[in-house]
Amino acid sequence: MDFSRRRLLGFGALALLAACGKRPAPAAPVTPAAELTVTPPTLATPSLSELVYRSSIGDVQVVIMRPRDVAGELPVCLALHGFGADARQFVELGLPPLLTATDRAGLPPFAVVAVDGGEWTAEAQRMLVDELPGWLVAAGLAPTPFAVMGISTGAVAAYTYAQEPGPTVVAMVSPAVFPDWAAASDFGLRDEVRWAETNPLTGTSSVPIAVWCGEDDELADAARALAARTDAESFFAPGAGHTEEYWASVMPDVLRHIGKSIG
Which residue, 60, 99, 108, 205, is most buried by CB atoms nearer than 10 A? Predict the structure, then answer.
């Protein structure tokens, strides 16, 4: 089964954009988390903030997205990027204005915090558990995410993160789940042991899950198997593939689903 060509073309385009300097630089300098001074958000706080923290896995970019003109401590949905991307993937998919629209539609306000995690190794997962809470507090947000969403390999990382205490809902978009290691390695994954340890098709979870996937995505059959195994709410779109266009199209639904889970 050949999953790699279309993926690598897409991820190669992301890398080309980065190499050409198209991605904006982080808004704040690289600073140890302990030295950051962040005042509580006010009505003048922008809806998008970008910080870089020194962590156990190196410099980590944290992108904080809030509904515009909503002050005070907010609950947090953690957002985990896909293979070959970074935390700004969610900005590029249009989350900041969508988050404001979700709030103005009457759903409870919440923040989305995206974090760089590379290939979502065990060390990156531990960074989320041990170090992220302090960064959230420094940003005036709730320290423990109530929800976690992820795209592609980030969806699997979200599933893994949700096994820790805290999250009460998981949103998995085009989850990169595979029936065997041959398919996973063809996609670009490189650590068979890690894949086996975190494979949602063989694991169990007590946290409610929702799955979005395009019916033309080569991973759709595995996504259906995941939804059946976990008794997830599932949303499969006819004619859609494993593409940024599809991911952007479902983000309003993902945010509504997460907002409705509050309380």
Answer: 99
